[in-house]
Predict the structure.
Amino acid sequence: MAKIIAGLGTSHVPAIGAAMDHDKTQTPYWKPLFDGYGAAREWLAETNPDVVIVVFNDHASAFSLELIPTFTIGVAPEFQPADEGYGPRQVPVVEGHPRLAWHLAESLILDEFDMTIANEMPVDHGLTVPLSIACGQPEAWPFKVIPLAVNVVQYPPPTGHRCFNLGRAIRRAVESFDEDLKVVIFGTGGMSHQLQGERAGLVNKAFDTAFLDGMTGDVDRLTKLSHTEYLREAGSEGIELVMWLIMRGALADDVKEVYRHYHIPASNTAAGLIVLENQP
């Protein structure tokens, strides 16, 4: 059977992708951030998953205010990098795993999660930047990818508790698949940041650190954070962290932290990364 063996949480700051695309990763500003990604890339290469489920949010590339699904799963054979106004990123086309994706869609819907099914969906920096963070700049991504998009742009987004339970349902769905696959799940977005208004540029290191600690130490506390707490403590875009809870819910109850990296600033935000493995 298929099995989720590990999870990775990471920010998906668009400027990180731009730094890679324009060969600026070793400039004085960016080098401390990118130096911290090496250990995670080595870990992922050694883990060598067959499939990665990437939980991300769209930034008005595939969806707009005309259509706002809460949870969307991509079931296509491939997903093209989106044009976000300056041309698509020159990264590999994302190759899907339709058979597992359709199995997930069926299992999740019958498990009473109302998934939107996407047979075609461009993927923007919310998905491609995490792949670049984890894999560098390969000619092709080294695994199949199943995109799972979450609405964290238009109020109301799903709660952390709902996202955690979706992760649990994803674990059940993967383990009922009849092919022997190693699966890793990414939770992306965050950490604390705000892009507009009087609090633009907000970073709350204490909140971010406590969130990272809670991924192994007290995930129950994280699932109970309200929308208001995210807004107050982590800024208007800090709500993206609920997507990390989908990743955490998809793992075993008992996990170990393999690696962590946290850096300020990355553009106008903090950038965090954590690698978690199921305990044997």
About this structure: The chain has a mean pLDDT of 97.
